[in-house]
């Protein structure tokens, strides 16, 4: 054994050797031959098993390696897909997304061409939204792609089937195709392979992505196709969303374009309408033109009292024969243009010209009580104008015309005639008589009828002519209108009306309706509605007067200005109700009336109801108006007799000094009493309210002295009376605002402050308008810069008001008042002083212009403004201020 072992070690060069006995079935193997043979058989089996195991192990290692490589590739692809998907998600432009996909396909798969097919809006066909190729295409190929339409029918080929079945197609052998559209695409573009991937979102196809190479075949394996398909599925939602966003933007853009076109069309239509309306306004009176525009027709109207004027040139035909046509028309136009300029100024309506005859009327289409005076003033001015023209032409040796003017007053019918060419005209015996007044007059004279004379005799100087025989009329009394009476004219010259004239004129213009006054007197005397609190009684009377006036307006048949009148009276009524309730509630609180809260609630309930009906009233619905009138009458009647009587008795029993209360309220401008209201009270009760109320002072001496000190110490006077008066009023209003902050015990202090700010803003706007009117009329060179300063200031103070409306802040109010003072002072001393220097050279012309504007109502001066101005400036004889209304 040892020898064997030595040989074995020597032969095999072993360092160590271990020997183990081979034991099978508990027996040493060499001792049992049978066992050895069996063992050998088992050994062969084991060997086979070991060989099989070895082979399996080797295969398994290969599979593991392959799977590992596949997983790594899949991971890489997923990472690649994720990165690309993030890139696509970051884009919001469909065209950019398409180009990114094209670049990706080229770099990763060498695919040179990409198509995106989308359905049209009506889902009738698929079209190539976008196509990109890195290979050059011929122009006809590009045009073919742009024009291609894949009908959405079974014959739509592979592209439509991919869309319909939501199935991908990859074709490399396309020599034979089933559908003509496929053959057309293949032949036109010379392609031999293509890949189609449907774009699916929410299990619905919305497009097809196509890939192809023009010059060679796409060599894509299954894994690549699968990757491309997964990629398209992954980004389908992004493509859809981006496409819809693009469509929406385009729709908005189209809508904006259409809107722009519509706005242009609307502006053009408005411009045409404006031109048509302007043309109508040149032909028809404003109210009549509006009725024609709104309704398409107009109703003829009967007017009880109108003054008609005719003018005619003496010897026109004979003189015109000696003039060339151009000069004739020019001279006639010059005269009639001047006549036209007087129409608006004197509230007249031009009717027509016939040859050398000019016809106009006062009191239409809006009735008034001053029409005879208006026609008289205009006729006197025409007479003076023609006298100047005669004098100039006579001195130059030119032929001249002399004028006859005739006026008659009486009833007429007025309306519009014609369908294509409209004409506003008047009919009736009054028209014929006015014409007779002109034809029976004398050259250079204004011939008026007895009826017109009766309207004018108090304030105009008229000369009785006696009776004149008139064709088809018999004998008629006639008068020459010569001038304004001396006592009613400036400097007694009979030309320019003075303050006394305008007081009389305004009294006539705003004269209360006699029938309404009689109704009121009867109601008050027989219904025991007098509370013996003068101001409250006055307001109750005025309240009822407005109701009856509303009733009068709707009783007028075919009233051409119903809507205008109704809107005006509704506005007046609304404002008056608010003022009356506010004043009455203050009185109840101050007098400590125990039921003041419940009384205020009654006011609130009434206000809520009536305000809900105001919009319908403004529309002129007669049924609604009559319903509201009945409600108003019943409510005010019951309210005065019951609720108001209760507090009146309380005040009487407690001896509360209501006169002092009302005097304070007037001084603090918490309410006002108009001249009409005074007149109404005095005519109903046959007594003056002044007997019951202490004389009203427009402002205290202390305030006057304060304003005077500011005015003089800062040298704010411009020597243009109207502007100086406005500036003094502005100083006063700022002072009122400042004073309201100190009166901490005042009721509803915030409301009073807001009212003071509102008054200041409104008056400032009015003042600016007046300044701008003067600057525009006399072409002030720095008018635009001045206007911009005005605009800037109004914007500033309005924004401050908005802030204070949100939250009343004492500090902000103090800052506002300080800034207002500084602005007004700087504006007067700098900008307005320049105006003053410019206008001083033509001050007489400016004053004359202002007189006319005051008369027209463009500029108004209240007695309180005049009182304040005279108190500060000590000038009670400023001509322009003699014409206040």
Please characterize this protein's 3D structure.
The chain is α+β, with helices and mostly antiparallel strands. Helix content is 62%, strand content 13%. Strands 9, 10, 11, 12, 13, 14, 15 and 16 form an eight-stranded mixed beta sheet that branches. β12 and β13 (423-427) form a beta hairpin.
- Report the top-level CATH class of the largest domain: Alpha Beta
- Helix vs. strand class: alpha+beta
Overall form:
elongated
Mean pLDDT: 79
Distance between the termini: 157 Å
Helix content: 55-70%
Uncertain segments are 690-699, 744-748, 876-885
Q: What's the name of the CATH homologous superfamily of the largest domain?
A: Nucleotide cyclase, GGDEF domain
How many helices does DSSP assign? Answer: 28
Report the count of strand segments: 16
Count of discrete structural domains: 5
- Which band does the percent of strand residues land in? 5-15%
């Amino acid at each position: 054994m040892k020898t064997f072992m030595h040989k074995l070690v020597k032969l095999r060069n072993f360092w160590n050797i271990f020997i183990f006995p081979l034991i099978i079935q508990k027996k040493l193997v060499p001792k049992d031959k049978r066992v050895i043979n069996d063992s050998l058989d088992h050994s062969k089996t084991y060997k086979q098993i070991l060989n099989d195991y070895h082979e399996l192990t080797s295969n398994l290692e290969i599979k593991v390696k392959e799977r590992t490589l596949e997983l790594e590739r899949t991971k890489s692809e997923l990472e690649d897909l994720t990165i690309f998907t993030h890139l696509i998600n970051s884009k919001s432009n469909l065209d950019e997304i398409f180009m990114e996909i094209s670049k990706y396909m080229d770099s990763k798969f060498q695919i040179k061409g990409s198509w995106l097919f989308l359905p049209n809006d009506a889902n009738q066909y698929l079209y190539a939204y976008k196509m990109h190729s890195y290979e050059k295409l011929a122009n006809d190929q590009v045009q073919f792609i742009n024009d291609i339409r894949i009908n959405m029918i079974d014959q739509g080929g592979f592209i439509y089937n991919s869309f319909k079945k939501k199935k991908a197609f990859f074709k490399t052998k396309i020599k034979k195709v089933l559908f003509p559209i496929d053959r057309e695409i293949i032949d036109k573009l010379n392609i031999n392979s293509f890949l189609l991937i449907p774009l699916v979102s929410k299990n619905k196809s919305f497009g097809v992505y196509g890939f192809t190479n023009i010059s060679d075949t796409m060599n894509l394996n299954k894994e690549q196709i699968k990757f491309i398909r997964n990629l398209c599925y992954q980004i389908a939602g992004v493509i859809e969303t981006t496409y819809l966003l693009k469509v929406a933007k385009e729709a908005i853009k189209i809508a904006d374009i259409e809107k722009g076109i519509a706005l242009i069309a609307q502006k053009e239509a408005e411009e045409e309408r404006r031109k048509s309306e302007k043309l109508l306004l040149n032909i028809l009176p404003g109210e009549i033109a509006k009725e024609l525009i709104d309704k398409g027709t107009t109703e003829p109207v009967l007017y009880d009292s109108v003054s008609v004027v005719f003018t005619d040139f003496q010897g026109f035909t004979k003189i015109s024969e000696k003039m060339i046509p151009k000069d004739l028309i020019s001279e006639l136009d010059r005269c009639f243009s001047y006549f036209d300029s007087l129409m608006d100024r004197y509230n007249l309506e031009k009717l027509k010209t016939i040859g050398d005859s000019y016809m106009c009327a006062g009191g239409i289409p809006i009735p008034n009580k001053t029409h005879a005076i208006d026609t008289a003033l205009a006729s006197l001015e025409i007479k003076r104008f023609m006298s100047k023209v005669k004098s100039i032409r006579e001195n130059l040796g030119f032929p001249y015309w002399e004028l006859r003017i005739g006026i008659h007053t009486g009833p007429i019918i007025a309306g519009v005639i014609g369908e294509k060419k409209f004409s506003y005209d008047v009919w009736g015996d009054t028209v014929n008589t006015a014409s007779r007044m002109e034809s029976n007059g004398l050259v250079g004279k204004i011939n008026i009828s007895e009826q017109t004379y009766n309207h004018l005799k108090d304030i105009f100087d008229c000369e009785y002519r006696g009776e004149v025989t008139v064709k088809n009329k018999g004998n008629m009394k006639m008068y020459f209108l010569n001038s304004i009476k001396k006592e009613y004219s400036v400097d007694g010259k009979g030309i320019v009306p003075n303050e006394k004239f305008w007081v009389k004129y305004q009294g006539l213009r705003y004269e209360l309706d006699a029938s309404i006054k009689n109704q009121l007197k009867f109601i008050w005397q027989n219904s025991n509605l007098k509370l013996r609190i003068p101001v409250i009684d006055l307001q109750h009377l005025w309240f009822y007067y407005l109701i009856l006036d509303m009733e009068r307006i709707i009783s007028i048949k075919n009233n051409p200005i119903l809507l205008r009148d109704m809107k005006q009276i509704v506005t007046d009524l609304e404002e008056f109700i608010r003022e009356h309730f506010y004043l009455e509630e203050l009185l109840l609180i101050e007098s400590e009336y125990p039921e003041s809260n419940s009384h205020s609630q009654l006011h609130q309930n009434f206000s809520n109801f009536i305000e809900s009906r105001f919009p319908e009233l403004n529309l002129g619905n007669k049924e609604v108006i009559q319903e509201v009138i009945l409600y108003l009458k019943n409510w005010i009647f019951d309210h005065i007799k019951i609720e108001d009587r209760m507090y009146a008795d309380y005040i009487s029993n407690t001896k509360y000094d209501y006169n002092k209360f009302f005097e304070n309220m007037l001084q603090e401008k918490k309410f006002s009493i108009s001249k009409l209201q005074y007149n109404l009270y005095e005519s109903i009760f046959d007594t003056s309210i002044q007997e019951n109320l202490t004389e009203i002072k427009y402002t205290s001496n202390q305030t006057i002295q304060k304003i005077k000190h500011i005015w003089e110490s800062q040298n704010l006077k411009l020597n243009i009376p109207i502007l100086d008066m406005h500036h003094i009023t502005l100083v006063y209003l700022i002072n009122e605002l400042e004073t309201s902050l100190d009166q901490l015990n005042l009721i509803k202090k915030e409301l009073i402050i807001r009212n003071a700010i509102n008054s200041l803003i409104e008056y400032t706007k009015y003042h600016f308008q007046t300044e701008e009117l003067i600057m525009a009329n006399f072409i002030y060179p720095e008018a635009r810069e001045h206007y911009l300063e005005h605009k800037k200031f109004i914007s500033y103070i309005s924004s401050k008001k908005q802030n204070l409306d949100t939250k009343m802040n004492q500090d902000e109010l103090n800052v506002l008042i300080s800034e207002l003072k500084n602005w007004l002072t700087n504006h007067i001393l700098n900008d307005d002083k320049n105006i003053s220097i410019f206008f001083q050279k033509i001050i007489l012309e400016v004053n004359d212009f202002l007189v006319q504007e005051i008369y027209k109502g463009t500029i108004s001066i209240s007695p309180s403004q005049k009182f304040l101005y005279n108190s500060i400036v000590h000038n009670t004889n400023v001509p322009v201020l003699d014409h206040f209304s």
